[in-house]
Amino acid sequence: MEIVPAIDIIDGKCVRLSKGDYNAQKTYSDNPLDVALRFQDAGIKRLHLVDLDGARSKHIVNYPVLEAITNHTDLTVDFGGGIKSTSDLETALGCGAAMVTVGSTAVTDPDLMQKWIEDFGQEHIILGADARDGKISVNGWKEDSVLTLSDFIRDYMNKGITQVLCTDINRDGMLQGPAVELYRSLLKEFPGIKLIASGGVSSVQDLMDLKEAGLPSAIVGKAYYEGRITIDQLSKLCQE
């Protein structure tokens, strides 16, 4: 299973939220590049970079952070937050992102999302399936849609999407364990999906549980920043 640490950005700083609540923000570093370099030195190959300002503003904001990380590390970066226009997507890819994670636009403008899949290739686009109580949420998780998680994923797999980053919003940043059974059911429902688990990881055991459930990738965020999972443990996991 691929371990993918996350760096969430507000005002150019590395932060974490709880359940996507911008009022429950904690800053961990003023220099996201330093954090990314520590991950690289630990043998990690991939990074999930989230522009929380962008998610709230509905356009990319922290692209200089993305560019700094891609210019000064060898990490494969997937970038999300604020991808609302073709210009935003081109900016992210132009600043070095290997992939972009698109959530809100996939809900609000499916025709544009389909065009992006066709024009840029499904290998460069990850479907952001952020769900609260089984329904997809949009715009920095501030709004819930009427779409169910399963219907949303099924629709986009039919359109060619193969990579899905699924976040259980109620678990995100809470350090109470990931939604293992949810992910297990999604893997059963959608064979062949490249599912990335996100939200709730609190320990190495949680990662082992996700691996046992068959997850190909898992995001690690607050557990690392709060010292629940050490950089040495991440390094060891990446070597296994």
In brief, what are we looking at here?
The protein is of the alpha/beta class and 240 residues long.
What does this structure look like?
This protein has eleven helices and twelve strands. The protein has helices at 32-41, 52-57, 63-72, 86-94, 104-108, 110-120, 149-158, 180-189, 204-212, 222-225, 231-239, and strands spanning 2-10, 13-18, 21-29, 46-51, 76-80, 99-102, 125-132, 135-138, 143-148, 163-168, 194-198, 217-220. An eight-stranded parallel barrel has the order 1-4-5-6-7-10-11-12, surrounded by eight helices. The N and C termini lie close together (9 Å).
Q: Spans with pLDDT under 50 lasting ≥5 residues?
A: none
With strands numbered from the N-terminus, the spatial order across the biggest sheet is 1-4-5-6-7-10-11-12
Mean pLDDT level = 92
| Beta-strand fraction estimate | 25-35%
**C-alpha termini separation:** 9 Å
β-strand number: 12
Helical segment tally? 11
Helix and strand element order:
EEEHEHHEHEHHEEEHEHEHEHH
Radius of gyration: 16 Å
Main sheet record: 8 strands, parallel, barrel
Note the overall shape: globular
Structural class: alpha/beta
Helix proportion: 25-40%
